[in-house]
Amino acid sequence: MYDLQDSRWLKNINQVRPSEHEVVLTFDDGPSRYLDEILDLLQAKVVPALFFWQSRLLHDQRPWQRVLTEGHKIGSHAHNHKNLVKLDRQQQYEQVKSSVKQIEAITGEPVRYFRPPFGRYNEDTMAAISQLGLTPVMWDISSYDWELKADPSQIICNVANHVRGGSIILLHELAQTVTVLPEIIDKVRDQGFEFTMI
After folding, report:
1. For residue 155, what pLDDT band results from cuts at 50, 70 and 90?
2. Whole-model pTM?
3. What is the Cα Rg of the chain in Å?
4. Which of 161, 110, 134 is nearest to 16 (CA)?
5. Closest by alpha carbon to 119, among 105, 102, 140, 98?
6. Rounded distance, CA 82 to CA 65, Å?
7. 106-136 burial, b if ≥16 CB within 10 A, otherwise e?
8. Is residue 30 within 8 Å of 56, Cβ to Cβ?
9. Residue from 33, 49, 43, 72 nearest 175 by CA
10. Distance separating alpha carbons of residues 181 and 75, to the nearest angstrom
11. From 15's CA, which of 66, 115, 116, 121 has a CA 20 to 30 Å away?
12. Contact, 77 vs 53, CB < 8 A?
């Protein structure tokens, strides 16, 4: 099992990185009821994003088509956000495979990227995603937005005070994140970084 704070494996699992003048914005745990609001803000600011979705939350009524039409990408976050390292190899494979197949069946687009729930993975996880031809994407900047419903301004600080060239920023599809997203984008750009897609 790997520790998210161990930078040695962060370099190994992130097979894709933006350039030193660019950063990537990512959203986990959707699609949620806040997705349209997030898309409105991204469109207004002209920012691309990568969404990692639990396939159990995806159905035809979600605005998935808008995500793709507006230039964003959808990756897998497994089927139902189980901690994969507590499952055996076959169970992990099924969690990821079922997620990918469901997303692809609804969107008609191939899924290329995967982020493990809780950022937890082991050798079995890596074997499963390799078998499925997926590229793992982690993050180096966590907003901790899921813990900060009562203090959304801290979400801004968590991102803006730590961002650097090549950063991959972790956000979630939450009400408090919607509130601060425009300021996060502005503060990152004020530091000379631009948002890109991997």
Report:
1. very high
2. 0.89
3. 16
4. 134
5. 140
6. 26
7. bbeeebbbbbbbebbbbebbbebbeebebbb
8. no
9. 33
10. 20
11. 66
12. yes
Bridge partners, residue 142, by sequence: 170
Give, in degrees to the nearest 5, the angle at Cα 91 between 86 and 96: 100
Residue 183 burial (CB < 10 Å; 0-12/13-18/19+)? middle
Structure tokens belonging to residue 67: 């995500």
DSSP assignment of 23-55 equals: EEEEEEEES-TTHHHHHHHHHHHT---EEEE-G
Residue 70, helix vs strand vs coil: coil
Phi, psi of 103 (to 5 degrees): -60, -45
Question: How many whole angstroms separate alpha carbon 134 and alpha carbon 145?
Answer: 27
Counting Cβ atoms within 10 Å, is residue 61 exposed (0-12), middle (13-18) or buried (19+)? Answer: exposed
* 169, burial (CB in 10 Å: exposed 0-12, middle 13-18, buried 19+): buried
Q: DSSP string covering 88-133, please?
A: -HHHHHHHHHHHHHHHHHHH-S---EE--GGG---HHHHHHHHHTT
Give CA–CA dist 4/11, Å, rounded. 11
Residue 138 phi, psi dihedral angles, 5° rounding? -105, -145
- Phi, psi angle pair for 172, to nearest 5°: -130, 160
